[in-house]
Amino acid sequence: MTYVDVVKPKNFVLAFFYDIFLIISCSSLIAFSSRIFIPLPFTPVPITLQTFSVLITGALLGSKRGLLSVILFIISGIAGLPVFAKGSGFLYLLGPTGGYIFGFLIASFTTGFFSQIGWDRSFHKTFFSLFIGNILIYIPGLIWLGRFTGYNNVLKMGFFPFLIGDIIKIGIGTFVLPSGWIILKKERR
């Protein structure tokens, strides 16, 4: 059970529209977080809040809805909507940052799965869940980026510049998610 399952309507029709609303909302959050970016002159990878949005989307919605949110985000970008950091269209996914976007799929599903089994209720398990999700973004991201930058430069251009920001984002998520469950528990008494 995830956060959103706690307040999910019992009526099938309402529950269906509730899920659709959540998927569209979180897809929009991911898109919005990609449009606010800081370009770095030494790398084609910009600083964004996308990774945080993807991880939180999975954690809040669960594996299936989290994955569907990322799929909707990607389809929107392929269709030409300006949801990617520096462009849109199918060819954007074939560019230097396409591997990270592919990693969003794996990360949202995985963090969602961890939340469904209750890992978002304790601080250390939440940290582990978000950390693993972040690694699952980096693995395909760095492999794909290396095709453009050379594998000898890939960590310098696609990992190290983002490490401090990722630690901060994971730290925020690690604090917020279990704290939310503590508040929910108190409210339900």
Automatic annotation (TrEMBL):
It comes from the Bacteria. Signal peptide: none annotated. GO terms for cellular component: plasma membrane. GO terms for molecular function: biotin transmembrane transporter activity. It is a multi-pass membrane protein. The chain crosses the membrane at residues 12-32, 38-60, 67-85, 91-114, 126-146, 158-184. It is found in: Cell membrane. Its main location: membrane. The keyword Repeat does not apply. Keywords: Cell membrane, Membrane, Transmembrane, Transmembrane helix, Transport. The keyword Transport applies. Belongs to the BioY family. This is Biotin transporter. The lineage of its organism: Bacteria, Bacteria division WOR-3.
